[in-house]
Design goal:
Structural class: alpha/beta
Number of strands: 8
Helix content: 40-55%
Number of helices: 22
Oligomer: single chain
Radius of gyration: 23 Å
Distance between the termini: 36 Å
Shape: globular
Strand order of the largest sheet: 1-2-6-7
Number of domains: 1
Length: about 500
């Protein structure tokens, strides 16, 4: 199989999502939470963003996003570490690689290591991002036209690379059962229109790809209303037009319930829709992919059993056979019945595996699996599981930035842990810059209101902190990079 550069859309994945008057967001790769809302809306917004944190922590898809982030950083650090031994590093690296692949003769006699570096690190990097953009359902040109064959190829590249970086000992501390199988995902492709990598849905006259980000946002919007400290307005919960396209999945369920069961005219009816909605969103994210969960993939699964958007539509289609979820106490049985119909591995198989993780990068997900073993979905029981959920959040507290008061919180017990948290914020953004940006902007790669001297006793300001970081990871120091067009000239 010939592997070429994948078409990565150079749109900053770490850009903060700004509303009309405020800024609220959670980034799983940076593990950073920003709450800009003020006044009465702050509780709803906090619950909305909490949903993102919990759904990433408690689902296999969230674990896979962490794996992708590790691989993306690993690929950039390896490329730079080797390239810096022989001179300057032309950047943006992805743009340079595109030119190199298009006109290799142009670079003869300059340096002979670039071809090998691009094959081993830049091409896999491009497939990690291309796959992520497809799985997320980003509304980007390359995603809208993506076919399942390209998505399957990207998944194969990603899993092969990950398996070479993270051994069984790295993940679990020992070899476990089942051993990695990584059964090949099959193309569905019985008809041309069915070979699209993403399910598309119509919204305001436009066709949009449906992916994991829509499931997260649909879930968070309902979660914010239900758990946000104010009684949810039933009309807003029912309304298919409330909000925007991030509510399409919810609207689909509401319309199906009213079509097949009847008008939602009581709290009991509303609970049936909500319970079913929580279960379908959750199950759509139990996808058997990645170095941890790819081993659970049985033979004959196709791409539409893998992609979160397609999985949501598959689970939705089973409602006529399994019915609606009347009570959350039947959460496991409901999801298992759907998995049985679709021949998917059931959530308990994932949970048993996730509980065994020992890698320090995946302990948040490990602890979430341990909680799910005791209770199928603790984050939907914040009243009865409040103490356990508070301990979980305290143990895995993100970087927390608030607008009112203007404050940054880094929850860590010592300087070593603080630097780990800050590196986790810095490295993914800086790696994205050296791969895709014409200029390196160091202002963006540290928390904007970080008061360094309050976190470290021997580091006085951000400039000194950056000197410390680049001293530890010298290959990616800004002095090593040169714009690739200048590199040609030299």
């Amino acid at each position: 199989m010939t592997i070429e550069l994948a078409p990565v859309e150079v749109v900053n994945p770490f850009a903060r999502a700004k509303g009309e008057r405020e800024e609220n967001w959670y980034s799983p790769k940076l593990h950073t939470l920003w709450i800009g809302a003020r006044g009465n809306s702050a509780f709803n917004v906090a619950a909305h963003e909490l949903s993102h944190i919990l759904l990433h922590a408690f689902t296999p898809y969230g674990q896979f996003i962490q794996e992708l982030g590790m691989m993306q950083d690993n690929q950039v650090l390896n490329y730079c570490g080797i390239a810096a031994r022989h001179g300057k590093i032309p950047f943006p690296i992805y743009g340079f690689a595109q030119e190199f692949k298009a006109s290799p003769n142009r670079f003869r006699g300059i340096r002979n290591d670039f071809g090998w570096l691009i094959e081993n690190y830049v091409i896999p990097w491009s497939h990690t991002w291309y796959l992520e953009q497809i799985l997320e359902g980003e509304n980007l040109p390359s995603v809208r036209v993506a076919r399942e064959e390209a998505a399957i190829k990207a998944l194969t590249v990603v899993e092969n690379y990950s398996a070479g970086v993270l051994s069984e000992d790295d993940l679990f501390g020992h070899a476990i059962t089942p051993e990695p199988s990584f059964e090949q995902v099959l193309p569905f492709a019985s008809k041309v229109y069915e070979s699209a990598a993403c399910y598309s849905f119509g919204w305001n006259g436009e066709w949009l790809p449906l992916g994991a980000k829509h499931i997260f946002e649909n879930h968070a919007n309902r979660f914010g209303q239900v758990f946000g400290g104010n009684d949810p307005d039933e009309e807003n919960l029912v309304s298919a037009s409330y909000g925007h396209f991030y509510l399409w999945c919810w609207a689909l369920l509401v319309q199906e319930f009213e079509k097949s069961v009847g008008t939602i005219d009581s709290k009991e009816q509303m609970k049936r829709v909500l319970n079913t909605f929580w279960a379908l969103c959750d199950l759509a994210l139990f996808t058997p992919i990645g170095v941890v969960y790819g081993r659970l993939r049985p033979k004959n699964l196709n791409w539409y059993d893998i992609h979160p958007g397609w999985r949501f539509m598959h689970t939705f289609a089973q409602l006529s056979a399994v019915g609606w979820l009347n009570d959350l106490s039947d959460f496991v049985e409901f999801q298992t019945a759907i998995c049985r119909k679709l021949r998917w591995p059931s959530p308990d198989k994932f949970i048993e595996l996730g509980m065994q993780l020992t890698n320090s990068n995946f302990l948040m997900h490990r602890d979430a699996c341990l909680m799910r073993k005791q209770h199928p979905c603790p984050y939907l029981h914040l009243n009865t599981k409040r103490d356990a959920m508070e301990r979980f959040i305290a143990d895995h507290m993100p970087i927390y930035q608030r607008a009112e008061p203007d404050r940054l919180t880094i929850a860590s017990s010592n300087a070593r842990e603080s630097i780990r948290v800050i590196l986790n914020f810095f490295l993914p953004q800086y790696c994205w810059q050296v791969m895709t940006r014409d200029r390196l902007n160091l202002e963006e790669v540290l928390p904007k209101n970080l008061e360094v001297d309050t976190v470290f006793s021997n580091v006085s300001d951000k400039e000194a902190l950056l000197d410390f970081i680049f001293g530890r990871v010298a290959a990616i120091a800004p002095r090593n990079f040169v714009p690739f067009r200048q590199f040609y000239a030299e």
